[in-house]
Amino acid sequence: MTPIPVSVVVMTRNEAINLPRCLSSLDRFAQCFVVDSGSDDGTPDIARCHGARLVPFQWNGRYPKKKQWCLDSLPFDHDWVLFVDADERPTAELVEEIARLMVKAANEPCHAAYWIDGRPVIRGQRLRFGCWNRKLALVDRRYVRFPEPADLDIASMWEVEGHYQPRVHGTTGRLRHPMDHEDAKPPSAWFDRHNHYSDWEAALRADGRMERLIDGEPEGDSGLRRCRLIGRRAQKRLFQRLPGRPLWAFLHAYILRLGALDGIAGLDHALGRAFYYWQVGLKMRSAASTPAPAAAAQVPSARTVPDFFPTCLPGGEPYSSSIAILSPPSAFNRSNVRLRTPGSSIR
Questions:
Q1: Across 64-192, where does the E strand assignment appear?
Q2: What is the DSSP letter of 35?
Q3: Predicted local confidence at residue 109, as pLDDT
């Protein structure tokens, strides 16, 4: 069987419990990198045993973060890159769909990036309903670049880009089949990870950085955009402003999206979403009630990303994290906080 001409990137830190099943689902792709951040649980050995190319990564606390660093630095054999978290597995149907897409892309113009749904798997049960996540996971690396939202001042900031999509020079499509998202770690890992995620979102929402980040995101599947009453960015802006977000998040997942039909697993997933947004709101209210320092520095807005994203700076100099500027302190500064690197994105 001809390998699929796509380079896969799996980013890890202590993912030994998840990585074997993830890598087993990627056998048909022509190239696979495991970009590891100092794992000490056997993750590197697992990557080598599955034939993946192991690349060590150490974040220097600046931009670019891990995904953009991969796009800039890895020796890709192919222009198309698939980002897969260690606790994700492309379904067989998705792999076949990507294979057909690559054959089509070789003969006619296509989109610059594709949205892929993430299907939650709770205690071995694949959810049929509820609120799944969606992200631009299959990208043509020549036409995408991740934004730099001036979030380096946040206490729990980590080395991987936050919950935002890359900027795309071109149109986007959506693949029909999902990736399964099943984290084999204990529930305590989920709570720990989402505690840090909510720190990040609360800080960005508090001073308007989240709004600017949403403004720069791709609108969504170009084919579906014409038949929607309200676009992806408008939906996110509306949800940002809704009072009682935890309640709405629960009702959306459990009632409107029929999560109740998934039984107790659907209830747990909907409650998890509500709990996350309750955390964000609580942290924003707590920060707002804390007196600001007398000479607090103003946090700059996100750096502007141009419509086209060259891989080299003017003059041919490769992009480097040394050109990035650290954000000044804020009410959510990183004083005495140990950086953490979650193994997967929020669901």
A1: 80-85, 88-90, 113-122, 125-126, 133-140, 144-145, 167-168, 172-174, 179-181
A2: E
A3: 76
- As a whole number of Å, the end-to-end CA separation of the chain is 34
- For helices 263-288 and 187-206, what crossing angle results, to 10°? 40
CA–CA separation, 127 and 117 (whole Å): 12
Dist CA 82 CA 33 (whole Å): 10
- Report pLDDT digits (tens) over 108-127: 878 999 999 999 999 999 99
pLDDT tens, position by position, 267-324? 999 999 999 999 999 999 999 988 766 654 554 444 444 444 444 433 444 434 333 3
Q: Which two tokens stand for residue 48?
A: 């080598």
Cβ atoms < 10 Å from Cβ of 212: 16
3-state secondary structure of 42: coil
Rounded CA-CA distance 74/66 in Å is: 11
Identify which of 196, 195, 277, 290 has the alpha carbon closest to the alpha carbon of residue 241: 277
My answer on whether omega of the bond before 293 falls inside 30° of 0, hence cis, is no
Using the Cα atoms of residue 238, residue 234, residue 83 and residue 143 in order, give the sign of their dihedral. Answer: negative
Instruction: Count CA within 13 A, CB hemisphere, residue 129.
Output: 19
Alpha-carbon separation of residue 347 from 104, 193, 208, 270, 274 (angstroms): 31, 11, 23, 11, 12
**Separation CA 196–CA 251 (nearest Å):** 24
Classify residue 56 by its DSSP letter.
E
pTM listed for this prediction: 0.81
pLDDT at 283: 95
183 neighbors 87 (Cβ within 8 angstroms): yes
SS3 189: helix
Q: Tokens in use for 173?
A: 């499509």
Q: How far apart are CA 150 and CA 62, in angstroms?
A: 10
104 is written with which tokens? Answer: 């089509």
Find all residues with CB under 8 Å of 49, minimum gap 6, and list them: none
